[in-house]
Amino acid sequence: MANKHGLFLAILLFASITVISVAAVRDLHHPAFSQSYENDAINAKTHVRITNECEDKAPITIHCKSKDDDLGIHTLAYEQYFEWEFHPNIWGTTLYYCYFNYHTRSASGDVYLERRDAPYCYKQCNWIVTAAGIAGLDSEGKVYTGFPWDN
User: Fold this and answer.
1) Is the per-residue pLDDT at 58 higher than 70?
2) Contact at 8 Å (CB) between 64 and 71?
3) For residue 37, which of 54, 65, 114, 125 sits 20 to 30 Å off, Cα-Cα?
4) 1-48 residue pLDDT tens
5) What residues does 126 pair with on adjacent strands?
6) 8 Å CB contact between 112 and 71
């Protein structure tokens, strides 16, 4: 019985060290580490903001979610925004996606895909919705990704 208990503790210790090591290495090699990074990388939050900038000032409807969180359906008037914050996971696989509706048009896409977005907007990811489509902006306000309306 003592051997089983010792083996269990050894496996638990190994797993704990592995998880801590993966988190530390991931954060040291993360693109944001070299930016104005807060001292506590584990507690750093990412903020996502989606703003209605449709030129005809029509409202848009968005529905955003992740695998674990449904952020609900929101109708945004012109220049109104919806935003949320989260802690990216230690595996670098955090994903949020949204469905968009504008007049009779629709679109859907990933608004935070860590491997794509972290180099451009690790702490603050801004999206604008226009008549042309949905655009992701980097930390300097330049478009680095996006997707068009489906119809």
Assistant:
1) yes
2) yes
3) 65
4) 556 655 555 554 454 444 444 444 444 444 444 444 444 455 689 999
5) 49, 137
6) no
Label the pairing between strands 124-130 and 46-52: parallel
The tokens of 131 are what? 């008549």
Return the exposure string of 36-67: e unless at least 16 CB atoms fall within 10 Å of the residue's CB, then b: eeeeeeeebebebbbbbbbeeeeebebebeee
Residue entry with tokens 């042309």: 132
Handedness of CA 123, 128, 134, 135 (dihedral sign): negative
Number of H helices, E strands in the chain: 2, 9
Quick one: how far is CA 12 from the chain centroid? 31
Pick the closest to residue 53 from 108, 117, 100 (CA basis). Answer: 100
Q: Render 61-118 in DSSP notation, one character per residue.
A: EEEEE-SS-EEEEEEE-TT-EEEEEEPPPTTS--EEEEEEEETTEEEEEEEEEHHHHH
User: What are residue 100's DSSP bridge partners?
Assistant: 62, 107
Count of CB atoms within 10 A of residue 130's CB? 17
